[in-house]
Amino acid sequence: MSTSRTLATAARVLHQLRHDPRSIALMVLVPCLMLFLLRYVFDGSEQTFDSIGASLLGIFPLITMFLVASIATLRERTSGTLERLLAMPMGKGDLIAGYALAFGLIAVVQSLLATGLALWALGLDVIGSPWLLLLVALLDALLGTALGLFVSAFAASEFQAVQFMPAVIFPQLLLCGLFTAREQMQPVLEGISNVLPMSYAVDAMAEVQRYPDATGDFTRDVLIVAACAVLVLALGAATLRRRTA
């Protein structure tokens, strides 16, 4: 991998996004809008908002970054841009790392806005540091980016890329412990939940809600989420194809 090529790829992606305000709005504003709606759906029960708001603060950015990253990468391949780039002295790792860096910068902005809105405008009550909450939200957004880049290799059209969301995201959403405690699930489902990264993202948010400082469980959870993001990016580089068949 080359640092200069990775940075050049990231700069190109950011330049393209600058001319695509709809994608920017999807990545940056939609999680904030979802949190805003969630707060007033539970307007009569602040306790309910506090109990699930932190978890969804991480889940909403993950979903939006998954969608945008998967569709943007697929569009590069179907338009022939990816084939031209890989014909140059640029490795797959350079390309994936460049995309991850570009979307990662967007994820920073997204996480800052969503966390700030939840804590200081919507009154989300957490015991832990806002910086810990921001860290988990950012890692979730990066994980969504990594998953989107990975699944784009298996989609032949943007329609198929969108269809991967119920296949990849929804099972994690149902099994992550948001709706029912993981230890109360059937043993098979609990075992599946234990290998899904979103489960550890939700667990990390729960630790921030309960404890003022980073605990050992919190550290373990965020390291698992980060490791999953890196692993999925590596798999994305290994499975990246020049063109869509």
From TrEMBL:
<dbReference type="InterPro" id="IPR013525">
    <property type="entry name" value="ABC2_TM"/>
</dbReference>
<feature type="transmembrane region" description="Helical">
    <location>
        <begin position="131"/>
        <end position="154"/>
    </location>
</feature>
<feature type="transmembrane region" description="Helical">
    <location>
        <begin position="222"/>
        <end position="240"/>
    </location>
</feature>
<protein>
    <recommendedName>
        <fullName>Transport permease protein</fullName>
    </recommendedName>
</protein>
<keyword id="KW-0046">Antibiotic resistance</keyword>
<dbReference type="InterPro" id="IPR051449">
    <property type="entry name" value="ABC-2_transporter_component"/>
</dbReference>
<dbReference type="InterPro" id="IPR047817">
    <property type="entry name" value="ABC2_TM_bact-type"/>
</dbReference>
<feature type="transmembrane region" description="Helical">
    <location>
        <begin position="24"/>
        <end position="42"/>
    </location>
</feature>
<dbReference type="InterPro" id="IPR000412">
    <property type="entry name" value="ABC_2_transport"/>
</dbReference>
<comment type="similarity">
    <text>Belongs to the ABC-2 integral membrane protein family.</text>
</comment>
<dbReference type="Pfam" id="PF01061">
    <property type="entry name" value="ABC2_membrane"/>
</dbReference>
<feature type="domain" description="ABC transmembrane type-2">
    <location>
        <begin position="18"/>
        <end position="243"/>
    </location>
</feature>
<feature type="transmembrane region" description="Helical">
    <location>
        <begin position="54"/>
        <end position="74"/>
    </location>
</feature>
<feature type="transmembrane region" description="Helical">
    <location>
        <begin position="161"/>
        <end position="181"/>
    </location>
</feature>
<keyword id="KW-1003">Cell membrane</keyword>
<keyword id="KW-0812">Transmembrane</keyword>
<keyword id="KW-0472">Membrane</keyword>
<keyword id="KW-0813">Transport</keyword>
<keyword id="KW-1133">Transmembrane helix</keyword>
<feature type="transmembrane region" description="Helical">
    <location>
        <begin position="95"/>
        <end position="119"/>
    </location>
</feature>
